[in-house]
Write a structure and sequence with these properties.
Length: 387
């Protein structure tokens, strides 16, 4: 039986992870490329409206992916796993590498041999290292963050309809009864509550309350919702981690995460920090607008620069060379070497930049905001952009 270290390119996600996307689909991993997944295998993807977790782990598609992982079938993996492949090619830690290390060296190492047996036998999982059931709340969210999408935010979806970018309001999923029956049978190591905005969904609190007190609970919230009920439900759990999403200091967060009030976010952050201490932290995406301002956020409270935006035109590739140099100079002065590495590896894509700026201009007109009040360095490009 192979050890994890013996495989060429293995990932725990298709074997002991449960992720349900906001529309209600069972997906092997939150980092997977959805476009490629549904383009090539859409007919094989199950949904929570009709199928149980048991059905999912026995599904044809998941078995194909497990086999491809074990056999290092890059032809199968190159598109749907391209986010992790690209991260590793850029010498950045991928989602895949993060979970592997949790089993090899860190908090899941007591389950390493059990995972190796599951992989070897391609068997039904005896535990779940991670659950992220975003289908519970769907895309319900009170913010419209610029780099988000309709699938993850009802507010963003509403703006898209007002702007004529779509005429489709995303439906809210209805999870099959057996979904919950199966869910409560598992030994779950880490349960992540994300969204949408997870604190807006009553069912999430019920699911939390039914977990073992030894399950690590991780909540990713935008910080705008009063956390009093969350504190009441989770106060006796042994490990709670709260990631509060923000994009920078007050002006940056309020602009990019439209509808947010940074003063309220700080108030709620401090309420949770008083209960869970250093396990409460800010998490920022790294995108074309905020990369030079993230460190200002992290000087206000504990936190870290989180995931790179790679799946749309708010990626670092949308930063033109002159602005890139300005940002690099600031980051060098601050000693932000991880951010420098990300920015230096970015390859300018002018087409994406103009798409991004047109996207921003349309929202500025709708919201009554102005990019240049927060990011004046974009003046030359913003004012010449035909939105």
């Amino acid at each position: 039986m192979k050890k994890l270290e013996d495989y060429e390119w293995i990932c725990p996600e298709p074997f002991t992870n449960l992720y349900t996307a906001p529309p209600g689909h069972y997906v092997p991993c939150c980092a997977i490329d959805y476009t490629e997944l549904f383009k090539n295998y859409g007919d094989e993807i199950l949904n929570t409206n009709e199928y149980s977790i048991n059905d999912y782990f026995k599904s044809n598609f998941l078995k194909k992916m497990q086999k491809a992982m074990k056999e290092n079938d890059k032809n199968f993996l190159k598109d749907i796993c391209k986010n992790c492949i690209k991260s590793e090619e850029m010498n950045n830690r991928s989602h895949r590498q993060w979970y592997l290390q949790r089993f090899i060296k860190n908090e899941f190492k007591h389950k390493k041999k059990e995972l190796e047996r599951i992989i070897h036998n391609e068997s039904y999982p005896t535990f779940l290292h991670s659950v992220e059931a975003t289908s519970v709340g769907g895309n319900i969210c009170n913010l419209a963050c610029n780099m988000c999408g309709s699938g993850n935010s009802s507010k963003f979806n509403s703006e898209e309809i007002k702007l004529g970018e779509t005429n489709v309001m995303q439906p809210q999923p209805v999870n099959y009864k057996e979904f919950y029956d199966d869910l409560y049978k598992f030994n779950v190591l880490e349960f992540k509550f994300t969204g949408g905005e997870p604190l807006l969904t009553k069912k999430n609190y019920e699911i939390m309350s039914k977990q073992s007190k030894d399950t690590m609970i991780r909540v990713i919230t935008n910080g705008t919702v009063d956390p009093s009920n969350l504190i009441k439900v989770l106060k006796d759990f042994n490990k709670v981690v709260i990631n509060v999403s923000a994009e920078g200091p007050k002006d940056v967060t309020n602009y990019i995460r439209h509808g947010s009030d940074f003063d309220i976010v700080l108030k709620h952050y401090d309420m949770m920090q008083n209960v869970w201490g250093d396990n409460v932290m800010f998490t920022a995406t790294i995108n074309a607008l905020n990369i030079a301002r993230v460190s200002e956020l992290l000087r206000l409270r504990k936190g870290h620069a989180g995931s790179l935006v790679t799946n749309n035109f708010y990626s670092l590739n949308s930063i033109p060379d002159d602005i890139k140099e300005t940002y690099l100079q600031k980051l060098y002065e601050e000693g932000e070497y991880d951010l420098i590495k990300y920015l230096e590896n970015a390859e300018y894509n002018e087409t994406d930049m103009w798409i991004m700026l047109r996207h921003i201009k349309r929202r500025d007109r709708l919201r009554g905001t102005n990019l240049l009040k927060v990011f004046p360095e974009w003046k030359e490009y913003y004012e010449t952009c035909n939105g």
